[in-house]
Design brief:
The complex is a heterodimer. Chain A is an all-alpha fold. Chain A contains ten helices and no strands. In chain B, helix 3 crosses helix 5 and helix 4 packs antiparallel against helix 5. The chains are: A mainly alpha, B mainly alpha.
């Protein structure tokens, strides 16, 4: 089974390759769990092999780092001989929690926290040091979460929800909810001073005015305006003004 | 042709595929992609400046679920290629302008790939619904090839745009400083908006305020 687990883990790294609007990440999860199913009695000839792939390759969505947990648990129930309707209920029941826990834990917690730490190190030490600290810090948890998820799913099978509701996950969510905004808050003034260090006093004032205008526009006047569009709007205007200001 | 063109192209493709398809180990974050691209283009300082500025733009959005988000990996590569070799901060504004345009195109490119994946899934419905592992593998890996193609096209477009801007953007010294100033101001506005969104209301907002205060004290006392 170890070889199958390793193959499944590697496959979770490309789990979103076929992400689509019809089935979202379903195909990817089926692709990731396939090596685990090969160990069923009779291997690919076992009826449950194709039935499980068919079920999972339908609609499924989850945070990509926790898809291994789904793959492990959904493969395990095939080994445990869980009835197909119950296995399908488990599949559907996993969609919400694996998405929301992963989003809060990683996208709204660990990612902004790691980025902020990387930016702080870049300013205080050097940019290459910031890059390395960001990548190491982020991926220790990222790769650890992928490994833990797959192993926990495989271990728990039908009882996988208990793993997701464990103390470690709750502690991570609580920590991220405080540490992410705090670290981003620390990083912002530091990065601002670093970026403006080569500009003169009037440019610094100008950047502050542009910043306030942008904040007003994005938060109050047009809240649907995305960052990239706001940037293009401001910079497009500045390029034209700079062109005319010869 | 930009110095280190092939390395930049390769790096842009890796950074682009990291966004969704392969690994998501965050080598496509602008801080990483821009800094490495600067090294590859022969101007580490310019790459770092572009990477740090674009990272503030990237703080705007969290890549949740099927959200639409710009592809800042190839964007940072194009930005670093634009700024490389330009003295001081004069290249920063045009570089961020190029990078944002590439990131915006990348956002749409991801949608095109996802729609193509949907069509592929519909064409192969019979095999997928039969639980055919070969069919699942083929459809899945074709999705990865599509994303690789998207990343190649996006990086090539970015490097071409960088070459055009470096050669023909008619900015005076004053104009270049103006665009650079606006780039930093806009980046800070976007990052502040993202931070406010991240913190929501209540306790997390208090943590953000405490962080800003601590950061400001750090700036003043360092």
């Amino acid at each position: 089974m170890t070889r199958g687990m390793l193959a499944a883990w590697v496959r979770t790294l490309i789990v979103q390759a076929s992400w689509n609007y019809d089935r979202m990440v379903g195909l990817g999860v089926a692709y990731a769990m396939e090596p685990l199913l090969r160990g069923l009695p009779g291997g690919r000839a076992n009826d449950r092999y194709a039935a499980a792939l068919k079920r999972v390759a339908g609609f499924f969505n989850a945070h990509p780092y926790l898809t291994g947990m789904a793959a492990g648990a959904l493969a395990r129930v095939e080994y445990d001989g869980v009835a197909e309707p119950q296995a399908d209920r488990l599949r559907r029941a996993l969609i919400g929690p694996l998405g929301s826990v992963g989003d809060q834990l990683i996208w709204a917690g660990w990612l902004p926290l790691s980025v902020a730490v990387g930016l702080i190190v870049a300013v205080v030490a050097s940019v290459p040091a910031g890059v390395v600290s960001f990548l190491v810090l982020y991926n220790v948890v990222h790769l650890g979460l992928r490994s833990w998820g797959l192993a926990a799913g495989w271990r728990a099978g039908i009882g996988v929800a208990g793993e997701l509701a464990g103390r470690m996950v709750h502690a991570g969510l609580r920590f991220g909810a405080a540490a992410a905004p705090f670290s981003v808050g620390v990083a912002l003034p530091l990065v601002a001073s670093w970026l403006l260090r080569e500009f003169g006093g009037s440019e610094r004032l100008g950047a502050a005015i542009v910043g306030m205008l942008g904040l007003l526009l994005a938060r109050v006047l047009v809240p649907t305006l995305s960052g990239v569009r706001l940037g293009l709007l401001f910079l497009g205007t500045a390029v034209v003004a700079g062109w005319l200001w010869q | 042709m930009t110095d280190g063109f092939w390395w930049l192209l390769l790096w842009g493709v890796l950074a682009g595929m990291d966004l969704v398809t392969v690994g998501q180990v965050m080598v496509g974050r602008p801080l990483v992609a821009g800094t490495v691209a600067g090294l590859l283009a022969g101007d580490a300082a310019a790459g770092a400046m572009v990477g740090m500025t674009l990272e503030l733009f990237a703080l705007d959005l969290l890549p949740m679920g099927g959200a639409r988000y710009p592809d800042y990996g190839p964007a940072a590569v194009a930005g670093a290629a634009t700024a490389a070799g330009v003295p001081g901060v004069l290249g920063l504004g045009p570089a961020i302008f190029v990078a944002l345009a590439v990131g915006y195109l990348g956002e749409h490119g991801v949608q095109v790939v996802r729609r193509a994946n949907s069509s592929d899934v519909r064409r192969n419905r019979a095999g997928l619904d039969a639980g055919d592992s070969g069919c699942i593998r083929r459809v899945h890996l074709r999705g990865m090839l599509r994303d690789a193609g998207r990343a190649v096209v996006l990086t090539l477009l970015g490097l071409a745009l960088a070459a055009v801007v470096r050669r023909w953007l008619p900015l005076s010294l004053r104009g270049a400083v103006l665009v650079g100033t606006v780039a930093v101001g806009a980046a800070l506005a976007v990052a502040a908006t993202g931070a406010l969104r991240l913190s929501g209301r209540g306790t997390a907002r208090a943590w953000l305020a405490a962080g800003v205060l601590a950061g400001a004290v750090w700036v003043v006392t360092r």
